[in-house]
Structure formats: C-alpha cells, structure tokens
Amino acid sequence: MKRIILASASPRRRELLEQIGLQFQVEPSNFEEHGGPTSEPHELARALSLQKASAVAGKHQDAIIIAADTFVVFQGRILGKPHTEVEARRMLQALSGCGHSVITAFTIMDAGSGKTVTRSVGTKVQMKKLTDVEIDSYVRSGEPLGKAGGYAIQGMGAVIVERIEGDYFNVVGLPLNALAQALREFGIRVLQSP
Predict the structure, then answer these.
(1) What domain range is 41 assigned to?
(2) CB–CB of 82/88 below 8 Å?
(3) What is the pLDDT of residues 20-31, one digit of tens each?
(4) Which residue, 152, 70, 59, is CA-closest to 107?
(5) Do 83 and 118 touch, CB atoms closer than 8 A?
(6) Catalytic positions
(7) How confident is the model over 136-186, as pLDDT tens digits?
(8) 161-165 and 25-26 as β-strands: parallel, antiparallel, unpaired?
(9) Which of 13, 37, 105, 149 could form a disulfide with 120 if both were Cys (CB 3.0 to 4.6 A apart)?
(10) What is the CATH number of the domain that holds 24?
(11) Composition of the chain by helix, strand, coil, percent to 5
C-alpha cells in the first residue's frame, strides 16, 4: 500500500485520521493561502485544499496526499482565524446568538498517477447567545486563537454551541464520512473485512 501523507499541521486533523485507524505521516504544505471575499466559499475551500495537496505531492512520487481547508461563513463573509484576543472577541460577539456555516474541503491526491478527488462539506452551526463575561472568559482561555470562527467545538467551545446540523467532524476540521468514502476511490478502506 502507498504511504499516506497528511499535508496539514493541524493537530485536530491528525487526531481525526488516527481515530479512524489510518497509518500516515505528517508533512505540512506551507502553502500561502490566497482568496478574496468575492470567492464562493465551497469553491474557495476546494481550491485551497487542492493547492495544499499539490504543494506536497510535488515532493513525492509514490504517496497518497490528504489536504484540507476549513473556514466559517457568516452572513456571506468568510471568517478566518483570529490571531489576537481583540479579533477573537469581535468574532465571538458577531456569532453570538446566530447561525453560521462551517465549510471544510479536502483533496486526496495520488502523487504518482495524478488522480485527484476534491470535495467540500458544509455544516450549519447555531451559537448560543453569549454574555460579555462568557466571551471574555473563553477568549482568556486562549482556545479561540488560530481557530476558524474563533472557537473549537471539540474543546471548551462545545458549551457555546447550541446545535449543529450536519457532520460534527466537519466542524472539527475533517468530514470523516465523506473522506472515508473518497478514500475508497484510491483503494483505501477504513473498515475492512479480514
């Protein structure tokens, strides 16, 4: 079987692939993301995941590359990852009591043959109405920094999410069901018969 390479530095994506029993190596793509607010979110996410996979595939001849990109879409705008407490606070205040979408696109690429599958999945998330104290406390925890939309549903952010509609793992950073289905196209089965 070919080596599998996760083209991502995300510890959450690494944990998710480990959770479904894949054996893989990690090699972040270091791809510089570019995309404007005018790009259609699913299209942009797919383009970014494809570019990340391509950046790593160019260094290998016999490997399956998995890359992904996740972001939050709120009122038609793409929210990135807050890098300061001020940005995180502003983002959480905007999302408070509102719904938004989390979009994750993934690309699976066979570096040898060039065969490529790129898909995107959307999940609707409803945030509870947050008090200023809750926002300040969560921001002080440091968890919102570097997370799409300023929260981590798999961490303390679980208590600020009221409900979701769709794939929970997509919100964490990788839609596992869709990924497992796509991996079958490369001869990789997550659940195999002995």
Answers:
(1) 3-186
(2) yes
(3) 999 999 998 877
(4) 70
(5) no
(6) 69
(7) 999 999 999 989 999 999 999 999 999 999 999 999 999 999 999 999 999
(8) unpaired
(9) 105
(10) 3.90.950.10
(11) 35, 25, 40
